[in-house]
Design brief:
It contains 5 helices and 7 strands, in the order H-H-H-E-H-H-E-E-E-E-E-E. The longest helix has 37 residues. The relative contact order is 0.12.
Length: 198
Amino acid sequence: MINKCTFYLKKPERMWHNSSLLNKKLRIRSEQAGFSNIQPLISNFYTVARSFFVKKLCIRLIVAMFVLLPLLIGCSGVEDEIVEIREQFFVRQTRYILRNVDQFTGRTIRLEGAFFGLEDLGNTYYFVVRSISGCCGEDEGSIGFELYLGNFEPPEDNAWVEVTGVLELRNSWQPNNPVLVVTTIESLPVRGQDIVFA
């Protein structure tokens, strides 16, 4: 009577550690079953097993990435990174911050623009802004941030400055107004674009 060709294997990931022993067992049992060429079967079996192991490993790595990535981001201090408003996206970035103040309160923001002061009822309020131009070239107003200078000396009006500050909500010329509490302010010799497009 011909014995059936049966395989008693360990887990796939541990299989090739005992490959020589496994080859011997497979060869002996195949000869008993009457198979003369078992090598292709062994080769195909190893290919499938390796593929299974690689897939299993990839799944574990993906799961680990999703679990660890938020922790790594939290530890890397993303919340402490400077939000830099760039010239080509000045209007878009500034509007987004002002519309989502709660998300940016306490964040450090850096931008360039024209500095000027505004006197109202005996108080002076400071701003860094750029002018907005519409599609037809007509001026549509200004956009930027109010500044709290603290101990910093105010630059001359219309000076081109780079400002870094922490965004806070303060009662100034408007109640609960988003204000940049200045940490650095510097007058720049090279002027950027005074007029930016909406």
